[in-house]
Task: structure prediction
Amino acid sequence: MTYKTDKTYQNAHGGYRTLKSYQTTTIIYDLSVEFCKSYVTYPANKSYRTYDQMVQAARSGRQNIAEGSQASAVSKKTEIKLVGVARASLEELLVDFEDFLRQRGLPLWEKNSPKAQTLRALCYKTDTTYQTYQSYLTNPESAANCLICLIHQANYLLDRQLKALEEKFIREGGYSENLFKKRLEKRQSDK
Result:
């Protein structure tokens, strides 16, 4: 799975596809689906609930970035809210992966461990895709730790994105604020 970056594709399919946060959450979603198919099975959990919740949290992380980007033309506040929802969904998913490791007695890789550093370095490659990380899905420990690392990276990106959106909103206002400002200006000019 690769993501096109030419301007025609971006314009036709939304500029959000060029956001590193969106690209990373797409990889998280795809890997989470595969992870759940392999390791969060009905026989192991006696329920499909965890499977469904993990997949939906991963999907929500991705979809709310896209929805927020589309809403930005109408409401910057809505965009900020939806990116915040994406961030919260990924935090929920992060806890699920940490629980998975803890409940199975599997180690959580330390941030600066050699395994984690090797994995973290992959995000700096150009055109990272699902396939970039697929080899980590071969066992539950590396799969969960891979996704934990990716979620931390996505959360970092979303925190930066939220900060930039908030600063822009404070500087420029949003659609409704600018309409209100124009309405006041119109009233003043009519007097």
User: Anything to note?
Assistant: Residues 140-172 form the longest helix (33 residues). The chain has one domain: 7-190.
